[in-house]
Design goal:
single chain, 221 residues, alpha+beta, Peptide Methionine Sulfoxide Reductase, Chain A, 6-stranded mixed beta sheet, two-stranded antiparallel sheet, 34% helix
């Protein structure tokens, strides 16, 4: 997305934009099945990294998932030297806008986080774009932080392919984890701090609403 100064919209306009988003199908969601293979629960915190378009919306969804301790916007796939918004925006750094999710595996599993991702976070059939954003920095990608996560991620994509849940082939990549670099401070908690910003209203609020509707047991306000 192009970073501009947040625009605060009247409540009536916000409602109208949300209605427009819904009728226009701006955010298409599905109900992905439970994973057949999952990472065994442990008693310590774990970290997962997801990329699916603008990190504002990805972070915004996972912040409302029960069992998630922290969601941080940032960059993954490239080097520390190029982990900056302006450089990543060129699409030549190898980075994707990504979100690091720290979670309690006794309350939510990695497989369930994947299920939410494929259901409401990103369209896994779009290559190098999501919503209005284009370029490899907006690709649909998973960055497993352990061999167990990598096994589950690949197994789940194969499960979804077999189920033919999507009309087009899944192009989400499972990439080697090279590190995660937090984004600039003004990107963190952007959706929570700017709920009436136009981009958020049209592209990201519907994802959070879909989470609340489709995963009520995982929802937290």
């Amino acid at each position: 997305m192009t970073m501009t100064k947040p625009i605060l919209l009247p409540v009536a306009i916000v409602g109208g934009l949300l209605a427009l988003a819904g009728t226009a199908g701006v955010t298409a969601t599905v109900m992905a099945p439970k994973p057949l293979v999952d990472v065994p629960a442990t008693s310590h915190r774990e970290v997962a990294v997801f990329a699916g378009g603008c990190f504002w919306g990805v972070e915004g969804v996972y912040e409302h998932v029960r069992g998630v301790i922290d969601a941080t916007s940032g960059y993954s796939g490239g080097s520390a030297v190029t982990a900056h918004y302006e450089m990543t925006g060129s699409g030549t750094t190898g980075h994707a806008e990504a979100v690091r999710v720290t979670f309690d595996p006794t309350r939510i599993s990695y497989g369930e986080l994947l299920r939410i991702y494929f259901s409401v976070v990103a369209d896994p059939t779009l290559k190098d774009r999501q919503g209005p954003d284009t370029g490899p920095q907006y690709r649909s990608a998973l960055f497993p932080t352990s061999p167990a996560q990598a096994k589950v991620a690949r197994s789940y994509i194969a499960q979804l392919d077999k189920a033919k849940l999507f009309a087009r082939p899944i192009v989400t990549t499972v990439e080697a984890y090279k590190g995660f670099y937090p984004a600039e401070a003004y990107h963190q908690n952007f959706m929570a701090r700017n709920p009436t910003y136009g981009y958020i209203v049209i592209n990201d609020r519907p994802k959070v609403e879909a989470l609340k509707k489709q995963f009520p047991s995982a929802w937290r306000a």
